[in-house]
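Quick one:
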Amino acid sequence: MYKRVRLKDTVEVPPEELGDVSPNRVKRLLQDKLEGRMDEEVGSVVSVTEVHDIGEGTVLPNRPGVYYEAEFDAVTFDPQMQEVVDGTVVEVVEFGAFVGIGPVDGLLHVSQISDEYLAFDGENQQLASNESARSLGVEDAVRARIVTKSIDERNPRDSKIGLTAKQPGLGKHEWLEDEREKREATAGE
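Output:
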């Protein structure tokens, strides 16, 4: 999920900053350029942490800045297919719940939450079962598996991650704890 990676990228140093082409200056420019962006190969760049090497500057015709290739370390978030993730419900809608997993949200479709039918309760911002007292609402902690992933590099907010919680060991943390306590109680009899 989170990884520390070594990357290379080109950064433009504006003319007014050419007197100080230091690792700290290049790091700040790389942070402005890359942090929060999504890349199919490395995932979402969470933080540029350290600049190791700054190449020779290149001037391009009709461009005011100087371009430097830099090698640097970054922390990235790259959700993997079938990975089990913990997150927090950030929004509940009629068709499911959006779960914050790192810097992105995944959709836990209502059909992938439980075997019970869950009805949308807009007033309380939750999905609730008519069969049991179970409900899923904003701020609830959830464990789910990533089952679909579609990354949009141009507009990371349009990236889509599909989740499921309909497997053993997955679901709302409170439900998992209740099931564990039931198993322990029956094992002790």
